[in-house]
What we know:
The protein has 13 helices and 2 strands. It is mostly helical. Helix 1 crosses helix 12 (266-296).
Amino acid sequence: MVDAIRQATESFWDFLSEIAVLPxxxxxxxxxxxxxxxxxxxxxxxAAAYPESRVxxxxxxxxxxxxxxxNAIIPARAGDAVRVFLAHRAVPGSSYTTIVSSTVVLTFVDxxxxxxxxxxxxxQGVLPSLDALSALPSFEYGWAFEDGVIHPGALLLxxxxxxxxxxxxxxxxxxxxxxxAQAFAVFDPPHRYARTxxxxxLADWALRLTTIWFFLGAFGIPQSVGNVLLVQATMSLAxxxxxxxxxxxxxxxxxxxxxxxxxxxxxxxxxxxxxxKITLTVVNVVIxxxxxxxxxxxxxxxxxxxxxxxxxxxxxx
Length: 317
């Protein structure tokens, strides 16, 4: 794994002087617009959940990009906690349960479109089968499969987590269901969801694919709709199979396998994949921590949370 990541990084640094600057800047611009679209969709979900409160877009956008920035460098989805905390501060009278549930509303379009892209990639026969996955460099979860069958240990882990989640949901559901339902108020009426959420998420996906288009051009890889969708499919698969933090290594192995018949050098593909990930990570971290500083006046998030907890009134019976 370490050798594969090191080789991919070295390919990127060797390729650095050949990167086209204008397409690279265009890709960064599209990525920033993509973040704005997603944050706008989230703001609209929260505005529907709290119609009696004013829900401005800017602090919600700051909360969203702050979470993206933290997730880029800190594992265990720590950025999600940052996002929820800042959004809770931005919406007077909001509850953490509703804020967290509101993020679920944004997953429906993402899951549907990701499945469409993934299904298309499967029809093209470019993605590896289960037998081929464990043989790819950078994949370290072959223990989970034996002759294409899930290992009993992995199956028990999945069942245990599912059972624990079901028990927690049953135990707390009657307390939380009103606040959870509040997050889904944007579906009433349905056309409000289509107009205020789906349109922004479709713009998000259009910009996401356009970002990949410009990155392909920056690294001299043929730009086509098929290649863009292929890159997106490998990124989605690397996320679904969390063999490494952020999919690093896994994503590069998948990309090289998927593009094996395109006629692009392996070193170029590795440089492209690592270069895109490094660029987007740097952009996310810079804009995310800038948003945290502008919102809180500091980037010491834990200190702010501790002060907030100390000032919070005791819970009522």
